[in-house]
Write a structure and sequence with these properties.
single chain; alpha+beta; Immunoglobulin-like; 2 domains; four-stranded mixed β-sheet; 4 helices; about 25% helix; about 20% strand; globular; binds copper (II) ion
Length: about 190
């Protein structure tokens, strides 16, 4: 009898602990967002390490190529033909966020990219990759331009963008200018 009472008390204790834990977990999810969860954007590419590193330098491309990679010369040939390689891509292409939500851009490709806000989409700073489109002013100067260098994302790293105003924003890669994202801030 007494033992049952002890067991019941222990069980009741556990139960209320579980309830309390659940309540605090719920609190967290319903609390007004002091620091909202960032909206994730991924940068992808399929650079071929052998040809990219031969052309640019060792360790430039660190892609885990599983038979789907694009050679350095093919990337330029496809861009020049106006059919840029779809393996070089930001995902998703369109992002809807509430004002105050940061963007978190992660480079899961094999080489560096930039995530640069532009007034209007257009060419980047490597003219042969632009398919005839002029370089947009925000990309001009390449990495010699500090404003561009600050938007660089190295392979395996991430960049956070905060403080976006309400309205439509355009971001592109200043190296591979067909990598584009439209962000709608409400
Ligand atoms: Cu890029």
């Amino acid at each position: 009898m007494r033992r049952n009472a002890v067991v019941a008390a222990l069980l009741a204790g556990c139960f209320s602990f579980v309830l309390a834990t659940q309540a605090s977990a719920q609190d967290k999810s319903e609390r007004p967002a002091a620091s909202p969860t960032p909206a994730q954007i991924v940068a992808l590419d399929e650079c071929d390490p052998a040809t990219f590193n031969a052309a640019i330098g060792p360790d430039f491309c660190k892609n885990v190529a599983l038979g789907f990679s694009t050679t350095f010369s093919d990337l330029f040939a496809k861009a020049a033909a106006g059919t840029p390689d779809p393996g070089w891509d930001f995902e998703p292409d369109v992002v809807h966020v509430k004002k105050g939500t940061p963007l978190l851009v992660v480079d899961q490709g094999g080489e560096p990219h930039t995530f640069t806000e532009v007034e209007k989409f257009g060419g980047g700073f490597i003219e042969p990759l632009n398919a005839g489109e002029p370089t947009v002013p925000e990309c001009a100067g390449g990495f010699k331009n500090v404003a561009v260098a600050k938007t660089r994302i190295l392979q395996g790293s991430q960049l956070q963008v905060t403080g976006l105003s309400k309205g439509e924003h355009h971001f592109e890669c200043c190296i591979h200018p067909w990598m584009r994202v439209t962000v709608e801030v409400k």
